[in-house]
Amino acid sequence: MANTAQARKRARQSVARNSHNASLRSMLRTSIKRVRQAIAAGDKTAAAEVYRKTTSIIDRVADKNIIHKNKAARHKSRLAAALKALA
Prior knowledge:
There is one protein chain. α1 (about 5-40) packs antiparallel against α2 (about 45-65) and α2 runs antiparallel to α3. The protein has helices at about 5-40, 45-65, 70-85. It is mainly α. Helix content is about 85%, strand content about 0%.
């Protein structure tokens, strides 16, 4: 357990930050799954629209250092390739 006031505050902040980051990570994973489901359904226009929204979410999460920028680029690249292969 934290002994100093500073350490107690940092522990409180850590809990709050962890829950916020977890929700952002969950949102990221859900949006990626939505793109994959749209691609699997075969509807290119719907998949393209979902992909556009997902790239925004991926970039937002990467900007906040929840995931690494390279991981964000990898996700976007693989989703774009899958979308392109749908044609």
